[in-house]
């Protein structure tokens, strides 16, 4: 959709996932067997027909750049528009911008060159299947200055405590934005705003020495913007801790949850040409999600195995997440464990965590 420009703002996404973010930013953390967290927001933008997307990053983005490449899986390898990975530029000695405003100010050419009239702003911590075309149409119908995508949750979970919450009236007009712990209407970090108004608010924030666009321009709302709420009703997971990462990942072993995320509209990711998973005669796999390239000779139950995992004969894995290219040697026992990519367990080890506190091994660990 040429009316929209996509902004994926990772500036305020800290290293919240402990060992999983030692070597990468949160947006590059693997999820659901063969994806990265950023794939879901990128795919939502692709499915909405957005042809120009800026990814604003500050640190630990080498892994993210390797994953995104030229944007081809999301149809963003274009002569006009496409995907732009945009770290802040500190070469201007007169620049006084700070925080995420630094990204927007120092990359004004991205906004000026983009043909879209409206900015769709999102992060990667909220995994959704939001229909951004429908959000855009809602924004136009209401005549709002800003439209926030919100999710009413049935049950408050620990990860919701840090989320921003939204109150609105019966007409969908936002009357308060806050972080009350017991509030169930969650802001998903997606909003739409007309491009000219967005840039005007960026400049106003910089002139007032502010550092956080959403907080200072929208939540505090000093300009008296008309803010509307869009009620999103699909799949929603907040990934802002190891606990939320593990629990939401394990929930995908539930067919209903998996179908909500993947059944309608494609989720694209970096393409890797590998053979289908291979099950040896000694393999015993139950209630698990296995990606292509796996070779399994042991027992796997209630677990998620990413691409290229090798489970040797006699190994037992239960309630665990095993990332790309890990090797699990003979006789190894893993229960409630998260192994980052390229971990090698030579054999005979026993690693046991708890569902509320999984045992984690960082990338490339060898035991």
UniProtKB/TrEMBL annotation:
GO biological process assignments: glycogen biosynthetic process
Residues of the Nucleotidyl transferase domain: 17-177
Superkingdom of the organism of origin: Bacteria
Any GO molecular function: glucose-1-phosphate adenylyltransferase activity
Classification via SUPFAM superfamilies: Nucleotide-diphospho-sugar transferases, Trimeric LpxA-like enzymes
EC number, as in UniProt: 2.7.7.27
Keywords, ordered alphabetically: Glycogen biosynthesis, Nucleotidyltransferase, Transferase
UniProt record similarity statement: Belongs to the bacterial/plant glucose-1-phosphate adenylyltransferase family.
UniProt name for this protein: Glucose-1-phosphate adenylyltransferase
Gene name of the record: glgD
